[in-house]
Design the sequence.
């Protein structure tokens, strides 16, 4: 079997020595090519080339959720899996690794490599559904390139937090859970749109839902992790269904305290609930539209400001070694 290992050399939780050990372990079982990413978007280019040229049977992403997202977008550049695309495999190397953990993989890179080798030996794989975000026709974002996401997207508050975290990381700060918590508080105090929701939820055949102050789109559950604690924003979300959505129509101090507590205590059976909660499950198509440009994120990657994003849930989009 031919494999391409796409390595993010600055991934949060992997060292050069660990990468060498993992590479040797994989090379003992497959015909392995290794490529180190050098810039943002490089992993996407490497995966796209492997898919177009047919040079790999499996593309392995060694890095965090951002690296995985780039590899997925490279593999699916020409559309969903038709059976001819390389399989995807993941070795977690980031700070959170939501996609890998949602697949049931160990969060430790060495253990995950062992699990991957076992799966390759057994020929074990599964089909996963993915989300697709694109600019909405007839809006200023119409020409924005579409982009796949593996586990979550967000327009508004959560994306603003991610933007703040990325800004801090560019200044040399480490990506830690404490950093995220600090930026949540700072963004809450400084976000002028949280007091009045400016996001509308649009679905064909339904009345618009106005006044969302927060909107999170999930393709899987958990939505994220706080250390080893899984946070379930939309507990019913699954790789086997369409997209789920959690919206909040109020982000006052009392509402944030209540819903933050519900998130911390969430489980696979119960997530945030209450009169300010808007939720969708197993949706194929919908649009989030804002009165003003808002931060937008996919799989924890801040993508700038958007006024309108259309979402599509695509079942059986890609096959994953697991």
Sequence:
């Amino acid at each position: 079997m031919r494999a391409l290992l796409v390595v993010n050399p600055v991934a949060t939780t992997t060292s050069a020595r660990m990468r060498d050990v993992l590479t040797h372990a994989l090379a003992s079982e497959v015909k392995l090519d290794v490529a180190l990413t050098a810039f943002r978007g490089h992993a996407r280019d490497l995966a796209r080339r492997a898919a177009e040229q047919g040079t790999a049977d499996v593309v392995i992403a060694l890095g965090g959720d951002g690296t995985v997202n780039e590899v997925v977008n490279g593999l699916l550049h020409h559309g969903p899996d038709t059976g001819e695309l390389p399989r995807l495999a993941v070795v977690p190397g980031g700070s959170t690794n939501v996609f890998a953990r949602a697949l049931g993989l160990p969060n430790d890179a060495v253990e995950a490599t062992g699990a991957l080798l076992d799966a390759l030996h057994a020929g074990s794989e599964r089909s996963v559904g993915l989300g697709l975000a694109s600019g909405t026709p007839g809006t200023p974002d119409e020409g924005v390139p579409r982009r796949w996401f593996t586990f979550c997207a967000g327009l508004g508050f959560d994306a603003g937090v991610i933007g703040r975290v990325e800004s801090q990381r560019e200044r040399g700060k480490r990506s830690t859970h404490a950093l995220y918590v600090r930026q949540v508080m700072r963004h809450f105090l400084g976000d002028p749109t949280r007091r009045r929701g400016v996001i509308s939820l649009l679905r064909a055949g339904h009345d618009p839902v106005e006044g969302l102050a927060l909107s999170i789109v999930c393709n899987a559950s958990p939505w994220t992790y706080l250390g080893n604690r899984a946070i379930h924003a939309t507990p019913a979300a699954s790789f086997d269904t369409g997209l789920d959505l959690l919206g909040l129509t109020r982000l006052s101090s009392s509402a944030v305290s209540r819903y933050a507590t519900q998130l911390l205590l969430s489980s696979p059976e119960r997530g945030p609930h209450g009169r300010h909660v808007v939720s969708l499950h197993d949706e194929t198509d919908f649009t989030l539209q804002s009165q003003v440009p808002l931060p937008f994120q996919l799989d924890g990657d801040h993508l700038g400001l958007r006024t309108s994003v259309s979402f599509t849930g695509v079942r059986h989009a890609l096959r994953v070694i697991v």
Observations:
- The mean pLDDT is 92.
- Residues 67 and 259 are 30 Å apart (CA to CA).
- The longest strand covers residues 301-321.
